[in-house]
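ARCHIVE CARD
Drawer: 12
Card no.: 0347
Subject: one protein chain, sequence and derived structure
Cross-reference: see card 0346
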Amino acid sequence: MRVFCTSGNDQRLGATRQAYDGQPRRETRFQRFANGYACHYAVGFLFDDAGDDAYGGTIMGTGFAWDCAVAYLFDFAGDDRYEATGGGTQGNGAQAGLGVLFDYSGDDVYLGYGQGNASASISYHTLPDCGGNFSFVVDYGGTDKYGCGAKNNSYVERGSRGGFLIDRPAQGESPPTADKATAGRTAGG
């Protein structure tokens, strides 16, 4: 999957807003495998250059890689909002995957708890043949808020080895600090 967007204020929220007959949706919105994802030995990218964007997901999306896959979501500008109601979202790799969510500039909000959280579980492949699960959220600049409790301008190891949330300050902002309070916190904690 490959998506390039050069304009702004996009809403990547999953299911459509209308039902097949043009009426408002009556079903609960559910989204899986979207917004810069890859699964089963694939590579997926989403590049967004501008705007105050909204990204939504239930599980397995928004910079998520599954089963020896590599997935990237790059957002290069704007005050963005990342919403997740379940795990495996926002820069996550699972079953030997590499998942990256990179946001450059803007005052961003990350709702949910999965930002850069790496799971130790790999049942599809044997270690060390597959390498492991690697999960990254990297946010450069702005005043950002994280559902997992990480602080702005901080570095946090998330979940098992291979999970990282790195909030880097832009020039002139305060330097990052190690955030011990959330370092051991996992998706359910």
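Annotation on reverse: The CA atoms of residues 19 and 27 lie 9 Å apart. The chain has one domain: 2-6+43-178.
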